[in-house]
């Protein structure tokens, strides 16, 4: 149970301040209040708090300033930003500025208590009277969605450098263990681990980005294990592996009878991950319609199970991963920009193996230890020849390819027993790896034909990875960043299905001559939404696209043409220079905005209403209703719709 914490609440509305204060005092906390930035600053100058809750807009500035000041001064307070309803950008900005979490107005007091309790959990406690109870042992992931966690490798690297310490980060033993599973001590990996430890400590969504096989799932589970949610479940979901028609039920759950075969209520991934972390792997594979639903669930923190009438609150942290260039997917219209922006609050880049070749010996040792323990064989070691073979390969498939290579080497008897005369010691392994580092990318002709790969048939069963590692995407491994990788690999769902149903490993493909392209992390979006074309541009484009009269019924009340002057405003209203004037008819103005958005979506989808609706998170019935209300008529049809949606191929 959480004991008395010191909380500073900053809000300029006295009623709200009292409401928050009473709710928190009832929880046993000591609460101090401030109604301006200046008051908050002086309170912070005099004392240290466990938690700061601040409104965004204050009479003398923005709550964001406090957040930045706390971060710059490395203060221990965990901050919670209260944002206005419908301003997701502010929430994202606050998380980026270091807020632990945010609350949306009107603040739900139950949610306030939950978020404060989360902030206090496992936090440094300089101001508290007593620390919270130690967190329980980690709960097993929920059966519905979780796969078995990979066995912890026990790298037998006697002379390997000592495990790194993460200065300034207070990491639990569970977090340390998860970081240790992420084998590698190169500067690139050290930086990645340092960042994991740092970003784990808030509720901010994390997007893990890296080439295939670099260990993104290990990174995600390390984020979970280092976070205050480590005692909750870690639920990995492969978004590309779930049939589209099941997505909603799988994500949000389903009520008994909501679809054929739903004989009882069923929890979805969000419910399974309650109190823990939901890991959305291959997020780039999520269809657009589901992207809209996911965005809503993340923003509202509520989901509605299929067949339910009520939404229910959910408490999950989202970590997602992709090997795709999501920014390019956004540009191409395959991924919603608002969802990208929402998931990518913090980006974690996992370095490819070519940027950390010095990790090869340690990785080989860790992977061989894992293979031996899974196969029940005595400890295994590299031979000089095997190390030479491995080190001379580009390993474009990263650690997964290395793992596959070692499996095959074990199958072909190309390894030594640890401690035997043929076993390679650490220093020699490091020397060979350093000497044999290939130029990147190696010219095809210069690539050595690795004996172990050339002779490779399918590995015998005893040498194959255990079921936890047999997800079909593990083999075969294609060079990352090649066009062929853009097509989804055949995958079996790893949620709720026995691993035995996964496809068996395929023969190892010889290193291809395809030149690896450098991994380019996606650029941060320049703005939350791209500037929408003007109404005139929309209309002109539509007319051009259809060559036929593009019938747009006149809007109920068009906004004033630019440039706008004060003249159109009600008497007494002045326009501050550079600001858009307030509309004199809000209803008409909103209608016009909606109309422009609809026309744009329709335009960009070739007037396919189903596709346009999906882009906007609507269904066909809703978009048809809105089009009719706003008098938007598809080219070639009449204002009075026949109800035929032939172009969409879908019934309303
Ligand atoms: N640093 C590492 N230390 C130990 N094992 C690793 C490391 N990185 C990856 N692996 C192992 O390599 C395999 C692939 O890792 P993982 O599935 O996490 O990669 P990924 O980046 O998620 O790949 P994909 O994008 O194809 O899903 C797993 O067996 C994992 O345990």
Automatic annotation (TrEMBL):
Keywords: ATP-binding, Nucleotide-binding, Phosphoprotein, Transcription, Transcription regulation. It comes from the Bacteria. SUPFAM superfamilies: CheY-like, Homeodomain-like, P-loop containing nucleoside triphosphate hydrolases. One of its GO terms (molecular function) is sequence-specific DNA binding. This is Sigma 54-interacting transcriptional regulator. Gene3D superfamilies: 1.10.8.60, 3.40.50.2300, Homeodomain-like, P-loop containing nucleotide triphosphate hydrolases. SMART domains: AAA, REC. Residues 6-120 form the Response regulatory domain. The keyword Phosphoprotein applies. Residues 141-169, 457-514, 554-582 are annotated as: Disordered. Residues 182-411 form the Sigma-54 factor interaction domain. GO terms for biological process: phosphorelay signal transduction system; regulation of DNA-templated transcription. The modification 4-aspartylphosphate is found at residue 55.
């Amino acid at each position: 149970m959480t004991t008395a914490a010191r909380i500073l609440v900053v809000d300029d509305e006295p009623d709200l301040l009292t409401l928050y204060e009473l709710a928190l005092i009832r929880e046993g906390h000591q609460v101090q209040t401030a109604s301006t930035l200046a008051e908050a600053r002086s309170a912070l100058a005099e004392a240290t708090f466990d938690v700061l809750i601040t409104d965004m807009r204050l009479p003398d500035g923005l709550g964001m300033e406090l957040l930045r000041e706390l971060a710059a001064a490395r203060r221990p307070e965990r901050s919670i930003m209260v944002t206005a309803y419908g301003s997701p950008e502010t929430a994202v900005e606050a998380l980026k500025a270091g807020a632990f979490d945010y609350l949306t107005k009107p603040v739900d007091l139950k949610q306030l208590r939950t978020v404060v309790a989360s902030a206090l959990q496992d936090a440094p406690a300089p101001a508290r009277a007593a620390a919270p109870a130690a967190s329980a042992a980690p709960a097993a992931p929920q059966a519905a969605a979780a796969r078995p966690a990979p066995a912890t490798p026990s790298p037998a690297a006697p002379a390997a450098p000592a495990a790194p310490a993460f200065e300034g980060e207070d990491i639990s033993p569970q977090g340390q263990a998860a970081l240790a599973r992420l084998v590698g001590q190169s500067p690139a990996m050290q930086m990645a681990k340092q960042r994991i430890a740092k970003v784990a400590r808030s509720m901010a969504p994390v997007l893990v980005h890296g080439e295939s096989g670099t260990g993104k799932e290990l990174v995600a589970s390390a984020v979970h294990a280092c976070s205050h949610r480590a005692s909750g479940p870690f639920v990995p979901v492969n978004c590309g592996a779930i049939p589209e028609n099941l997505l909603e039920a799988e994500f949000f759950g389903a009520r008994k009878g909501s679809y054929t075969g739903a004989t009882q209520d069923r929890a979805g991934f969000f419910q399974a991950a309650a109190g823990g972390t939901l890991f959305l792997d291959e997020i780039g594979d999520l269809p657009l319609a589901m992207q809209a639903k996911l965005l809503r669930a993340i923003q509202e923190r509520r989901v509605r199970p299929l067949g339910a009438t009520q939404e229910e609150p959910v408490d999950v942290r989202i970590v997602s991963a992709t090997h795709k260039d999501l920014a390019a997917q956004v540009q191409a219209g395959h991924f919603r920009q608002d969802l990208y922006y929402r998931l990518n609050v913090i980006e974690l880049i996992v370095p490819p193996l070519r940027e950390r070749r010095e990790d090869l010996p340690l990785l080989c040792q860790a992977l061989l230890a894992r293979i031996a323990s899974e196969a029940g064989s005595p400890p295994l070691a590299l031979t000089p020849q095997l190390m030479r073979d491995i080190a001379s390969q580009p390993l474009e498939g990263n650690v997964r390819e290395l793992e596959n290579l070692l499996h095959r080497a074990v199958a072909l008897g190309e390894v030594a027993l640890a401690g035997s005369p043929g076993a390679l010691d650490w220093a020699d392994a490091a020397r060979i790896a350093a000497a044999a580092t290939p130029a990147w990318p190696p010219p095809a002709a210069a690539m050595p034909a690795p004996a172990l790969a050339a002779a490779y048939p399918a590995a015998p069963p005893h040498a194959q990875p255990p079921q936890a590692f047999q997800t079909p995407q593990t083999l075969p491994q294609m060079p990352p960043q090649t066009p062929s990788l853009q097509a989804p690999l055949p995958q079996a769902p790893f949620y709720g299905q026995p691993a035995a149903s996964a496809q068996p490993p395929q023969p190892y493909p010889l290193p291809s001559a395809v030149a690896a392209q450098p991994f380019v992390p996606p650029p941060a979006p320049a703005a939350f939404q791209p500037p929408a074309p003007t109404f005139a541009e929309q209309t002109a484009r539509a007319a051009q696209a259809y060559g036929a009269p593009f019938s747009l019924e006149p809007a109920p009340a068009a906004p004033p043409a630019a440039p706008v002057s004060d003249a159109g405003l009600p008497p007494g209203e002045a326009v501050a220079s550079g600001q858009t004037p307030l509309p004199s008819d809000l209803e008409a103005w909103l209608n016009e905005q909606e109309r422009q958005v609809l026309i744009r979506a329709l335009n960009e989808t070739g007037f396919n209403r189903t596709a346009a609706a999906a882009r906007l998170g609507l269904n066909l019935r809703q978009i048809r209703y809105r089009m009719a209300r706003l008098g938007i008529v598809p080219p070639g049809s009449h204002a009075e719709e026949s109800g035929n949606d032939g172009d969409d191929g879908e019934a309303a």
